[in-house]
Structure formats: structure tokens, C-alpha cells
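User: My advisor asked me to double-check a structure prediction for Riboflavin synthase before group meeting. I don't want to rely on an old file, so could you generate it fresh from this sequence?
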Amino acid sequence: MFTGIVESIGRIIELDSRAEDARLIIDTADLELADMALGDSLAVSGVCLSLVEKHDRSVVVDVSAETLRCTTLRDLHRDSRVNLERALQLGERLGGHLVSGHVDGVGTVVSRDPVGESLQLQIQAPRALARYIAVKGSICVDGVSLTVNTVSGAEFSVNLIQHTQAVTTLGALERGASVNLEADMIARYLERLLGER
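Assistant: Sure, here is a fresh prediction for Riboflavin synthase from the sequence you gave:
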């Protein structure tokens, strides 16, 4: 479980394709690794992955064919920047919203417009995911917890303050970029519960 509050921007050191799977070696920059153990979860641009190796300033994670198929991790290359977040520990502050790291779909940045000192991103979500996106609701974009500002069909907008632009990869997104999207899990569970009636 994660919060969508990015702790560090990592960099792909090596990407090793293995049949249909892949192994990533990630420079974790200033991410604190001392309390992490093999098998622990790490959100990599919003995708929950398990540590298979840990070094002083880097980690190794394996990515399944299914994860590659369903996320933007398939587009990574050497030197790609990724948002990193360690799993939530009980008793910590919950600054964003509850995020599972299970990507619901890949969206596309339709536009990026400065609004004062902020940046507004307009994102096209997959049609099946649109029903879970609500104005003033939460959405996770590449592992970043954000508030939805507007919704029009399958398109929605989010606002990035300067801090978010500086400490995540979102500020560098260009028009046409693909992003991992995870809808608010409460909306998904509500739909399931109501659908059973």
C-alpha cells in the first residue's frame, strides 16, 4: 500500500529483457533503503514491484510480461527517470490517498498549460476507467496522488504545483506522453458492492 507521495526520482541504470519479462536496475538517488528488505514493495512510477536485490544506492526489480503489457514500464530505457515510493508503514502520515500500485490503465497527456505558477495537465483516460474519475476525487498518475479538477467524458485535468513539478517526473511530461493511471480504490469497490445488489 502506498500514498502517492513520491519520495525520490530514480533513474534506470540497466534494463535487461528476459524472454517476455524484464529486470530493472534502478539508481534510487536519495531514497532511504536501510529499512527495506528483499521482497519489499516499491512503487516505480505507480507500479508496485518487489525488490529482488538491494545495493547502497540501487535496487533490482523484476517486471512480469503482464505488467509490461499493462503499464508504461514497457517504454522504459536506460536513463529513464521514474517516480519512487516505498510502501506505507502503519503509523505514518497518509499525505496523499490510499494507492495499491496496481495500474488500472495507461492514459495520454492531451495538453499541458501553465496556470499561474502551476501546470495543468489534461489527460485522456481509457474509456473503461473514466467512470471511476470524479471531480475533486483522487487519481494516481505515474505514482503521484493528485486531485481531479475537471472531467469531460474520458478526459480529466489535474493541477501540478511547483513542488510537485520539482520532486516528480510529471513536470517534464509533454503532450502525447503515456502515463500510468490508478483510480481511487474506493470507487472501484463501491461499484463492485453496488453491482452485487
